[in-house]
Amino acid sequence: MSSSPAPAAMPAPSPREHVERIRRERYFIGRDEQNPLAEDMHEAVNYLSQELYSKDVHFLMELVQNAEDNKYPCEVVPSLEFLITSKDITRSGASSTLLIFNNERGFSSTNIESICRVGKSTKKGNRHQGYIGEKGIGFKSVFLISSQPHIFSNGYHIKFNEKPCAECNIGYIVPEWVESTPRLSDIEAIYGCFKVLPTTTIILPLKNEKVDAVKKQLSSLHPEMLLFLSKIRKLSVREDNSIPESSTVTEIAISIENNFQSRKSMHAESYTLNLSAEESGKMEEECGYYVWRQKFPVKAENKVEKRDKIDEWVITLAFPLGERLSREKKLLPGVYAFLPTEMITDFPFIIQADFLLSSSREAILFDSPWNKGILECVPTAFMSAFVTLVKSTPDAPAMSLPSMFNFLPVNPSVISLLEPVRSGIKEKVLAEDIVPCESYASQKIFCKAGEVSRLKTEFWTILHNAREFGVDLKNLSITNWLQKYAKVEFVSVYTYGSTVVESLSNAKRPVISFAHFLYHSDKESHIDDYYLQQLCCAMPLIDSYGNAVTSRNSIMVPASGSKWVELMGTNPWRKDGYIELSADYKLAGYFAGNYTSEYQLLEFLKEHLQASDVPQINPPNSSFPTVSSPLTVDNALLLLEWIQNRKTCGVRLPDQFLASVKGGSWLMTSVGYMPPKESFLSSAKWGSILHNASSLVDIPMIDQQFYRNKLDIYTDELKLIGVRFEFQEASAYIGHCLLSKSARNALTTENVYSLLRLIRYLGEDSYKEELKKTGLIMRFEEASNAITQIFKEMVSKSSLTKASVLALLGSYRQLRTHSPLPVALFNCMRSEKWLHTSVGFRSPSEAILFYDTWQPLSPIANLPFINVGDSCHGLGTEIYSYKDELEELGVTVEVQNGARFVISGLSIPSDPSIMSKATVMSLLTCIKSYIECGASLPKGFQDEISKKWVKTSMGYQCPDECILFDAKKSSLCMEDGPFIDEAIYGSELVSFKDSLARIGVIVNVNCGQDLVATHLRSHKVRTTISRIYMYLMNCKWKPNDKEKNNNWIWIPKEPEDGEWVRSEFCVLSDKNNLFSQQIHVLDKYYDKKLLEFFSLAFGVRHGPDSEDYCKLWITWEKSVHELTISDCSAFWMFVATNWSKNTQKLLSDCVKVPVCADGMITLSKKEDVFIPDDLLLTDLFKKLPQQSLFIWYPPSTMPSMSRARLNSIYEGIGVQRISKAVMKNDSFTLENGCFRTVDAIKVIEVGLLRIILMFLADPALDIPAKERHKMVSCLLNVTVQETDQPITVSYKVILSSGEVVNVKDSRMLRWERERSELYMQSREGVSGYKEKIEFATYFAEEISRGILFEMADQIASLSDLIKFGSLLNFEDAAIGFLMKSKNLQLFPEDDDFLKSSVLCLCPEN
Fold first, then answer.
1. Residues near 1323 by beta carbon (within 8 Å), at least 6 away in sequence
2. Bridge partners of 1377?
3. Where is this region: Disordered (predicted)?
4. Picking from 270-279, 484-493, 1237-1246, which range would have the lowest pLDDT averaged per residue?
């Protein structure tokens, strides 16, 4: 037994620490020594490699099997998802990557340990608990398709490598931590940003040569995959491809729902389930299945080693209620071993069981005894399911039932080895009443297949018409005429008998006649046994007094000639419902013309109403008077035969009946008739011996000659009624009688001598020995024993006086040197409770003789001190003179020898202050002594010692809430935790370290972190708290899950003041110093060494997160009017760096955004602020005085804060682009309406028309020539109006307040297409490049909008071409090169149209 307590449990290592420990401890990575087991591991891994690549393993089935064996949280729908992508997220050079997502509970440390070993599955040997995997490969099958599988689960980010590790030369099972690639964000991006990532993700960068095979397996995943899985409810396959048309995998989503309706009969249950599957490009398909599951015991001859712990087969049959789900019309598997095999049975149902399979899972092993046993049970399971399907249908036998016969395996299976299953089903179907038959009765009718026939359709029509006309189809015979016209009623014997029984009165003759009627009806087989028995029970009977009796408990044969009347004289049990039949039931006679011979009717009643006689009568729980007086020999033997008969039939004789037989004086003995319980039946051996005692005692010996020496056959019955058979019983009887005489002083001298002569006769030689046998004490040892007996009697009666005790001790003092020793007396003195103590009478070994050394222990223990007072039972101070004798007898005198009393009698006072230092030291001394003896502590000790009695720096505490202080081993001070107060107990306390540890005190200060942490929040001084934090950090302490959310962080405010807060309100640092008012920043108060501890132990965040920043912005919206550039830049820098869907959602709730006005950053409603995506519009609105309409941007010195990224962020939180928010007024105005018409050809030049026609002729636009010409014609008819005044257009935005902000812009020209008029500002005197590009731009936009008003997406492209043409003055050669560079040309039909149009415009040319 350890003398020190187990150290406090260390916190569980983090996932990364766990993986590093495996690498270091198991594979010796990072150590300078060689792993002694490295060679064995290498061989095991080589074996795994051979196992993997020698078997034809279907990796997809292995992964589904693993997922089915996983455990799932109760709140999720167990799902398995396969996703294949061309993205190389592991950067391993793979052309395709397969990701498997599973919402199981996730990998535990045990699972990680298992997966890093060979042959150490956590599921091994647990098949009887529902695990379906068994091939011994499992997860490691992924190495067939991937060289570097990755696992992300429950904080574990690890990968394995097929190639041997460079540091330990082992492959496959050596884990490696995934540092950065891939990251969880990479996985989330592929899985879907708006979906919660499942707990476990397996990433398999595929081997190039395996990509096609994997895609093929995924595309051929069977829709019925989930049919017999008990956990997985959803399974899907999808491809992550930006171009769906180029997908190479057929996607599918499968889900399953069941309606479980258990049928708890014949170890079976049934339910229906619905399976649905949706393939890419197809409608969702569904199919229902009726499922029957039945259990069968495994036979001994079918047992195999792989299933040695399985005692039951569970066979499941699935009957599809529609067209089965399949993919690409592939053949459907008919045999499942939880997952589909490739066996096509052609049976119209599916067989599922725990079959043993080939390594490829393609087929079951037909030569396996296990599988043979399962297949032998399939016909029985099918028949049970089929009968339930057909016969339990509520409207059976409706004509819809035949559809269920489609489930019969009519056609032979393509697998000849399954033919016994089909033939077995056929045999059972032929033997069952299973075929529904049409009937016009309400009773359901089913017949055997060989007993039914089919009616022609025409005959069915006749029957239907007859029924319509009211013809009764039940009787198509003469009986119909007899009933309808002759009024004849047909009745059965039972119906007639029932009517007669109800009409019978107390008249004797009719009652006996009815009994004869039943007798003859049974004799001629006119009535079934069941109905006969009912009538017999209802029939009244005539008793010996001539009364008709209907209520009875038992029926006795007539008295005349019966045995019972010979034994009992009369019926003593009439009140108990026992009736004796009338003698008339024995007589012969004619009744209704039928003759009944003598005793025939009585025999009929014996058979059907159990009329009986002794010894067949079952007696009631009642006595009968005959046995109270002597019985004749015949009656006595008859009584014994009766008891024997009932006992042989297994009838338990009632207590009162048996008691009357035992106590009645009916048995002849040597002293007359005696009760059996007072009689003896002797053997020849000892009967003559007891004859010599007859002069002393009359022994009632049964007279066997009187009973013709027939009693030997009733030995067991005589014992049952109390007769005694043993010599010892007779001897005890004699002794009892002699003692009775002795008590009455009735023994004479002659009696005594006679007794001695009897004893001598039994084998003794002298009177001396006879006297010994009478109890006369002859020797010292006997005298010692006699005294011992007297002593015991006095102890039992508590009659020992003080004088007696002292005299006894004085005798002990003299006799302890006597030879021989009175051993019996001394042993009795040691064991008996004769010493009166403070807790009652105790034996010497349970008593203490009080001395002053016991005084400190008195307040804390109930100790058995010997009573040395002079009161009742007190032994006085004289007892101290017998100290040595008492010690010899076992009394405890010294404290060091009495630890057991203190430990067992410990009673800690409710006020611990009365426990002095001496008391505590004495207690610890006792505990130390007790432990050194090797004894285990008693049951109640721990409850007592666990009270608060130890004085610590934190007040009185329980031992398991204290720590033994050791300044040399810790940086803590005494006041920092619940350290035992050395000022009170002294330095010698350390010598009791083992005793303190045994009662729960933590004696190693470095193991007391939990207790120190418990009292942490009682402190308020920062230096003290920092010191405790440093101690907890060195101990690697963490709070448990329940306490993690407590206020663990101290935030100082003044030297001696502050507050305790939760970790969620703290961060380690705030590099931008934005959150001093919102969050507690710990690097302001604590040493940098502690910051990592705050993070690991309490989960303190390293810095503010997106939610904190969003809350900060909301605070600024409410309270800050102007922001500094540094603060605003820091804020949006964080947002840009940490932008995500969640950040977008949080910031979308903000009301205001930053704008820059007069060099200051202010906040305005986001509805009134715009993104300047159109610079021309931006310039117009920026010219407005006192208007800040555009969003703020940080200085260009911040590279991660590009305007494009900020525009995306601003737009994501609801800021509008100016180009979308602005509203344009299409009407235009002039300062005055003075226009002049100019020649259209000067504006609508031939080059312009060529550009437009070539653009419209682009094959990508697919515009017919006729339509192209029609679109251009609108320009041919235009009238050009010129003015010297500016042509303006207006723009406006509406603010949240309702205010409308307007601006105007000069557009230089305007095409009113409906009126075929083109208004333009005069260009005379315009020569600058700016004016030329402005005109070209506005001209190109206006013409393009007019031509392509129905093709808005093409306006910008045409506008660019026209702008170039305008700047080039539409010069032919330049235009030709420009259009060719855009791969555009003028087709002949367009050239012809252009020429004719030019002629119309310029006939003179």
1. 1331, 1335
2. none
3. 1-21
4. 484-493
The tokens 């009682």 sit on which residue?
Answer: 1018
Count other C-beta atoms under 10 Å from residue 110's C-beta: 10
| Cα 825 to Cα 421: distance, rounded to the nearest angstrom | 85
How far, in Å, CA of 1249 to CA of 1400, rounded?
13
Closest by alpha carbon to 642, among 567, 544, 571? 567
Tell me the Cα Rg of the chain: 55
Residue 1351 is encoded by which pair of tokens?
A: 């093709």
Please check the confidence at residue 440 and state whether its pLDDT lies above 70: no
Give yes or no for a contact between 89 and 182, defined as CB atoms under 8 angstroms apart.
yes
Helix or strand run (H / E) with residue 1224? strand 1223-1229
Alpha-carbon span 428 to 421, nearest angstrom:
11
d(CA 303, CA 1110): 67
Closest C-alpha among 344, 353, 98 to residue 239? 98
Return d(Cα 516, Cα 592) in angstroms, integer.
Answer: 9
Q: State whether residue 1252 is helix, strand or coil.
A: helix
pLDDT at 780: 72
Tokens of 284: 């969702």
Burial of 794 (0-12, 13-18, 19+ CB in 10 A): middle
Distance from C-alpha of 858 to C-alpha of 588, rounded to nearest angstrom: 100
φ, ψ dihedrals at 744, nearest 5°? -95, 10
User: How many C-beta atoms lie closer than 10 Å to residue 749's C-beta?
Assistant: 7
Nearest-10 crossing angle of helices 1372-1381, 1355-1367: 150
What DSSP element (H or E) covers 191?
Answer: helix 184-191
Instruction: In whole angstroms, give the CA distance from residue 1000 to residue 945.
Output: 9
Do residues 86 and 96 lie in contact, with contact meaning Cβ atoms separated by under 8 Å?
A: yes
Contact (CB, 8 A) for 591 and 638: no
Exposure b/e, 1027-1062, CB count within 10 A at least 16 = b: bbbbbbbebebbbeeeeeeeebbbbbeeeeebeeeb
Nearest to 591 by CA among 662, 519, 640, 527: 519
Query: Token pair for residue 1153?
Result: 């955004």
> What is the sign, positive or negative, of the torsion defined by CA atoms of 364, 368, 369, 370?
negative
At 178, the amino acid letter reads V
Angle (CA) 72-77-80 rounded to 5° is: 80
The DSSP secondary structure of 1013-1052, one letter per residue, reads HHTGGG---HHHHHHHHHHHHHTT----TTTTTS--EEEE
Dump pLDDT digits (tens) for 93-133: 999 999 999 999 999 999 899 888 876 555 544 554 444 44
User: Residue 289 CB: number of other CB atoms within 10 A?
Assistant: 23
| Cα 51 to Cα 371: distance, rounded to the nearest angstrom | 24
Dihedral of CA atoms 653, 659, 661, 665 in degrees, nearest 10, equals: 170
Tens digit of pLDDT for each residue in 617-676? 999 999 888 888 888 989 899 999 999 998 888 889 999 989 989 888 889 988 888 899
DSSP tag of 164: P
- How many percent of the chain have pLDDT more than 70? 86
Mean pLDDT of 524-544: 87
Q: Residue 732 corresponds to which amino acid?
A: A
- Helix, strand or coil for residue 1358? helix
Strands 594-596 and 1160-1165 come out as: unpaired
The answer to whether 1070 and 1076 are in contact (CB under 8 A) is yes
Q: Which residues pair with 1191 in a beta bridge?
A: 1155
- CA distance linking residue 879 with residue 276, whole number of Å: 95
Prior bond of 149 cis (ω within 30°): no
Helical axes 1355-1367 vs 1246-1256, angle rounded to 10°: 150
**Residue keyed to tokens 């930006």:** 242
